[in-house]
Amino acid sequence: xxxxxxxxxxxxxxxxxxxxxxxxxxxxxxxxxxxxxxxxxxxxxxxxxxxxxxxxxxxxxxxxxxxxxxxxxxxxxxxxxxxxxxxxxxxxxxxxxxxxxxxxxxxxxxxxxxxxxxxxxxxxxxxxxxxxxxxxxxxxxxxxxxxxxxxxxxxxxxxxxxxxxxxxxxxxxxxxxxxxxxxxxxxxxxxxxxxxxxxxxxxxxxxxxxxxxxxxxxxxxxxxxxxxxxxxxxxxxxxxxxxxxxxxxxxxxxxxxxxxxxxxxxxxxxxxxxxxxxxxxxxxxxxxxxxxxxxxxxxxxxxxxxxxxxxxxxxxxxx
Length: 319
Fold this sequence. Notes:
Helices cover about 35% and strands about 20% of the residues.
């Protein structure tokens, strides 16, 4: 867990994009989002009571949209000191279309986003590398890996290794999106490397099955494989099913999810779980209690549209 200091510093690395939500050629609502940014916001909100400091590491351009996103992150108490501005680049863009059952369909425009160029600088000169000794916990996801070229992934892993060597926390969230990867073999190797470095793994079982299964893999077999990840702490999320918590040296525990009257939008369910889980865990809670906090916030988030719900909608969970 974090070094002994008054305010633990957590850095979330990844990509935040401009989000459009609505009907094609109809009314669109504009905001921003991305898995690791969503987690950073929910972690900052839930972690404030514990004195946790959260920063976001990403690449942004020198355009107005980038400046506007940074302003809004600052309003969420997200530190900007790990952001790298990349002249001439802009944020990526994605469109969310939500069906009547609350399930999402995504369309992306991100090939030239500034976040992909984060490590396009001399080795050791990105904020993440230069200030690694200030980080108590690093969070990244399968999507974080997917936007990077192989050399950039090596540099991210090098930071993670540096942190683990001195006893800091490294958290990997599997978030597997097949369209972002050139092939399954490359993805599997990248995920293996990340799990070898992580102290905490946050795994969604459906994503695990999509990546590691062969179309005939029994669910129980995949579950056993996921729980066997080489991390001190493994959390397996199973949708509306109970969340499994496996901590080295402790019994496997089922943590029930919370029922909701109506699912409106599942966007950021996993991201909000991660934010609440890490806030509680880094704040001193047990893994089981942290999973309860994650399930509680995720149940709240799916009852609203969009990745980031209003603060007042979760005010009781931040107290």
